[in-house]
Amino acid sequence: MANTILVTNLTLTSYLDATRQILLWARDVKSRIVCAANVHMLMEAYDSPQYSQIVNSADLVTPDGMPLVWILRLKGHPNQQRVYGPTLMIHVLEAAARENIAVGFYGSSPAVLQSLLARMQARFPNLKVAYSFSPTFQEMSQEEDMEIIECINTSSARILFVGLGCPRQEKWMAEHRGKVNAVMLGVGAAFDFHAGYKQQASPWMQKIGMEWTFRFANEPRRLWRRYLFHNPRFVILAIADLLGFLR
Known about the structure:
Elements: E1 4-5, E2 8-9, H1 15-27, E3 32-37, H2 39-47, H3 49-56, E4 60-63, H4 66-74, H5 85-98, E5 103-107, H6 110-123, E6 129-133, H7 142-154, E7 159-163, H8 168-175, E8 183-186, H9 190-195, H10 203-207, H11 211-218, H12 220-242
Parallel strand pairs: 3-4, 3-8, 5-6, 5-7, 7-8
Antiparallel strand pairs: 1-2
Helix pairs in contact: 1-5, 2-3, 2-12, 11-12
């Protein structure tokens, strides 16, 4: 398929269309999953059939990384633009504030979450934040998980931003589809970026697809495998995909 890269199906969308769809689901109180796909996610999906099934079952999978945008254009979608998770988050927050739709935040550390909430409510004074929670990295009991689900559902949050990082956040959203009565958006490092805890690469670096070099330089220990192992493999596999060898 023209919008499939390796084994992952991507949605041909834009910031405007994705935001409209998310708000439509939110108003109808639909339990939905939105993923922002980059090279890391595609390689995790390529290596794990179980994770691939999770991503491909999402309701919306945006092309978050520029390499994915370039490949989609080569596959016959010349107008496809990047729909980057952290930027999509801002678009959705702005629209939610305008339309009085309550939002929630799940993930990251308490300090990051506190800074994020303060900054977003200062940026969008009408934003209604109905829920926020910073989970531990330890596995939760069924009772603890049920309590979280109940808290989210009784909070009136209809859009839930999930910042657990790939692949943990996609697995969490899949496990909670149909249980959490909100549109769940996996936004990765967006919490850290918008809270002011981590810098984003300059726009020119993002535009030419070199954002990864900036992030790797800032967090080599944490990100070395993602970039030094996954990126070269992705290039080879993407070329094979474009030439039709992976079909």
